[in-house]
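Cross-check.
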Amino acid sequence: MRNLLTSVLLTSVAGIASASDLPNPVLPSDFPTLDAEIVAIGRQLFFDPVLSGNDNIACATCHHPALGTGDAMSLSIGEGGLGLGRMREVVNGNAPKARIPRNAPALFNLGAREFSVMFHDGRVQMSRDAMYGIAMPEGRTLERPVATPLAAQNILPILSHDEMAGHPGENPIADAIDAEEIHGPNGAWQQITDKVEAIEEYRMAFDWVIGKDTPLHITDIGNALSQFITYEFRATDSPFDQFLSGKADALAPDQLAGMELFYGAANCASCHSGKFQTDHGFHAIGLPQFGPGKDDAYSDAGRGMITGLAADKYRFRTPSLRNVTLSAPYGHNGAYSDLEAMVRHHLDPFEGLGNYDRRQAALHDLGAQDKDWEPMENLAEVLRIAMAAEIEPVDLSEIEIDQLMAFLSALEDPISRNGRLGVPDRVPSDLPLDPVSDPS
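Predicted model, tokenized:
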């Protein structure tokens, strides 16, 4: 039940969104119970490059807490890069085959119970019809049950040649993936697991969790990563959370005005609804397309590539807006490095697409990447993206845009700037860690 002070404040501010428009406060029960031992293992694994085929990339490389659990780039460099964020550089003699086709999404609150869909296109999601209740991409079916969809998601980037696995000829894991040997005792998942299990410190830690005589399995690694992400990147103590819990002065006047717009005239909450400002659905918002895309034409049909439905083309998962001020760039391909520019695109997606400033894209210089902008040079493709857009233009004044931005800042949890446990001093493999912060 909402605190009486909140209700009084809501009714006393002229024009403020009604209490019924606002979500309920986040509760501890909205998250699963965690095991401290497993969280500790997951922390080590998250920062350890041992999960990559060439021992040179960790989960944290593209989801670093110092960079808002992303990497501050529109499209990342995985294999073939060295460094963190904007300072990541191409390794001589091992240039990336391509950019990662989609933006590295933020990890905040992904461990909450209501998050049942993963990735920009939802290719991992809870499903009664799927093996162990979680739908996975073709050829990547789960071998055993996992605790959450997040745990299932965690064991997929390690199978991507461009993200973490490396390319054929570079290591046995990459070769197995190239041959589509994913499952079984000689499959890529087991080879990665064997690397972890061969490190005594990991094996001893897992002994406390699965027992000394139980062989380690890739799902144990996925579950450990999930528990760490759930604990470390929980963001539920923002000024907005405090306001919902009854702290009447938690929001400044401009943030209150922005909240009224968000849940009212600006129509943001039609998609960014619920406790975490996401409906967990898929929507087309007319974002410009660039980078390698997901098909031979450098385009990206999003959810439509998963479902095969024409109505789903160019739709992407609604992201949570928690800590949105920390997690630039924005969009499925990081089209906007500036949050206000992304907000303005939502207000008029047709104008945003037609007059897109390519300088908004944060891209590493990979040399001859002449195809990056091919979709935007293709008038037919631009028109298809525009016609698929579902958002109706909204007319806001400059003052109202400022107020909306103020409210978005109220969704930031202060602990998320540093995290709860933070970066370990070392990892059990003793492989080098990514730098703690982005020098840029």
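Strands lie at 81-82, 89-90, 117-118, 124-126, 134-135, 282-283, 316-317. The chain has a mean pLDDT of 93. Passed to J.P. for a second look.
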